[in-house]
Write a structure and sequence with these properties.
The chain is mainly β and about 150 residues long. It contains 1 helix and 9 strands. The longest helix is centred in the C-terminal third of the chain and has 9 residues, at about 130-140.
Length: about 150
Amino acid sequence: MRGGGSVRRGEVRGAPVAMSSFEGKTRVSVGAASVAIPEALLPAGQSLDSPSNFFEGLGMSVLIDQGPFSDDLTSAVGHAEYRETTEQVAGVPAKVVSYRDPGGTGYIVAAHIPGLNRLTVVVRASDSVPRQVADEVIDSIEAAESNKREE
C-alpha cells in the first residue's frame, strides 16, 4: 500500500470526480522516461518531448522533471500523513512519498528515481480525485532500456 496516514490506495476524501473522467490515458515522453497521464490533463498543442513538463486539469496536476536539479523529495519530510517507501518503478529503485497537501485540500503522491537520470514525478490532487488515479500515474512510469541504471 502506498498512501499517507488513513488515506489508502483508491480512497477518496471530499466529493469524488467520476473515474470515467480519468480513464483515457496518453503516454507522454519526458527526457528518458514516459508516463501515462489522464488525457484530460493535456492542453492542446503542448510539446510532449522535453526534460520537464507540467499538466493540469480536473482537480489534479502532474509535474515531470528530470536531471541534476530535479526535486529529491526530501523537503516533503514532516508534512501531515507523510509516508515514504522504496519501490521498483520503471525497473529501478525509487523513493515514493505521499502526504497531505500543505494547503489541506488534497494530497500529493510523488516518485524520485535517481537511476533514471534523477526523474521526479509529482502528482498533486484535490480530495475529489480518486487516489487510484495518482497511484496509476506513478505506476505507469517507464524507461527506455538504455536509460536504466542502478544507484
